Write the structure tokens for this entry.
Amino acid sequence: MAQYVSIAIDGPSGVGKSTIARLLADKLKYTYIDTGAMFRSLAVFYIDNGADAEDKETVTELTSKVRLGIEYIDGVQHMFVNGKDVTDRLRTETVSRTASVTSQYPEVRSMLLDMQRAIAKQQNVIMDGRDIGTVVLPDATLKVFLTASAKVRAERRFRQLSETGKLEGATFESILKDLEERDYRDSHRETAPLKAAEDAMVIDTSDMSIEEVENAIMKELP
């Protein structure tokens, strides 16, 4: 049975997990798994069906009706909900807020857990999220936990949304407040809370460039 390499990258929202994971996956020729995109895809489904993110019962019921799919088109991960490509809708603030709330629910996390683990058993992967090193891939080859101050992360998020035209009326102040609330929810939820695995490499990216973070991780690879 083949033994595949898995790299788990965890951390709060806006810390640069996806950017770093994509760069490393490209350099190492591994498959990049954006677990956040999975939760966001479900959020799109909840929104389209008029569900209140705080209504756990309705969200749980809808979760049993969704069929999630992943395809790689020109090397880019595309997410499909019941056969429809929703990739272009995943990075708005509305979807982010909905995913942040609904990802707390055990039923939502359970649905995606088996899918995430199955992918890692079939190929070399770099997977990023909130609980990859602690829950999804506890035996990952390398575990990394990225962090940064809330202010720095809010600045990055505001700049990213401005450049992509997806601010939806959000301000720096509202993004900062949303990040702080999301951090609290993620770290205090009952199921798979956000925290660094005991054997994770912790990197504060506040004053680091993307290249510096990438190089630091590459040095730890076996």
The radius of gyration is 17 Å. Strands lie at 6-10, 31-34, 68-73, 76-81, 84-85, 125-129, 142-147, 201-204.
